[in-house]
Each structure stands twice: as structure tokens, then as C-alpha cells.
Amino acid sequence: MWTDLDLGISRVALWTESAAPLPQVPLDEFHNREALNTISNNPDLFKIVTPINISRFKELLINHPHQPLVDSVIHGLTFGFWPSAHTFYGTYPTTLDNSGPPPKTTVQSDFLRNQIQTESEADRYSAPFGPDLLPGMYSTPIQDLSWPYRRNPVRRSSAFVIIKALEIFPLIR
């Protein structure tokens, strides 16, 4: 699968042979005691949920030629990915509610409420924990982007990473 003779290999698979490993949490982020305490004291709010069978994924990639990338992906799937968000502890506010304006219409409000329910039922959102953010938390706006025949929730954030690493075998549990 990873030899030079395999001309049918996808561009994504080729990219994985030279891509930099995924970043780990920078050491300076460990100075943000408020955030660290919130994470430690509320593990139920920070669950790592993935449909990927991590053990099988690791087995399938045992012969991948770029093990540092594989190791970084396995680490992210196991412990969570670093979203490249820097808190600039001591410079930025410790906590920031940037949830944005409320929906303008009942249709938008209903759509977003249904989307939140869908995400919660799929275990992609944590359960409600009160009206205020906990120390060290930031919220980002979630808005409704309406198209003529389709509605999409949009999370406006400069601190997220979308990764499509490999196109291999079924890895869903």
C-alpha cells in the first residue's frame, strides 16, 4: 500500500507520508491554572468521543512510512487534539462568552435548538452545566447559515482544525 509502485494511491494518502505530525499542547498553556482546574474538576464536560476504533486504526497503520504522524493522530484520538488555540494566559481574559447575538427568527432558533439536540444525542456536545461559563472557558458563536433549500449550522472560530487523515478500510466501531 505504501510503495512507490502503487500508482493508484490517493493524494491524501501521499500527503500523510510527508505531513508534519499534529501539534501537541504548548508548554506555556500549562500555566493557565483556571482552565486546567476546570478540565480536571469537570471531566464529564471534556470527554474524548470518536467513532474510530483506535486499536484497529493503529494496527492498520503499523507499516505506515511516517510513524511520527501516525503517533500524533493516535495520541489525538486517545487524549484529544490540540486545536491550535492559544489562551495567551495573562494577556487575554480568562473566560469569554462570545456566543454572539441570538437568532433573528423563530425558524433560525428552532433549527439551532434541533441541531444542538442532535449533537448532544450523538455525544458531541457536553451536557448543560449552568448559565455561566466555567473559569478558563471561551464560547464561540454558533449561527444559522441559510441557503435556499438547506440550513447549516456554522461555528465561527479561528481555533478549530479539520483533519481528514487517511482513506483506509472501515474503522467505525
Question: Would you write up a description of this structure?
Answer:
With 173 residues, this protein is an alpha+beta fold. It has helices at residues 11-16, 33-41, 54-60, 67-79, 106-121, and strands at residues 96-97, 138-139, 142-147, 150-155. The strands form two sheets. It has a two-stranded parallel sheet with strand order 1-2. α5 (106-121) links the parallel β1 and β2 (138-139). The protein starts with 10 loop residues before the first helix and ends in an 18-residue tail after the last strand.
Give descriptors for this structure.
173 residues; alpha+beta; two-stranded parallel sheet; two-stranded antiparallel sheet; 4 strands; globular; disordered C terminus
Tally of DSSP helical segments: 5
- Helix fraction, binned, reads 25-40%
Specify the structural class. alpha+beta
Mean pLDDT, all residues: 79
Q: Give the SSE order as H and E letters.
A: HHHHEHEEE
Largest sheet: 2 strands, parallel
N-to-C span = 23 Å
Radius of gyration: 19 Å
Q: Which strand order does the major sheet show?
A: 1-2
Give the overall silhouette. globular
Q: In terms of per-residue confidence, which ranges show pLDDT below 50 for 5 or more consecutive residues?
A: 156-173
- Strand fraction band? 5-15%
- Would you count the extended β strands for me? 4
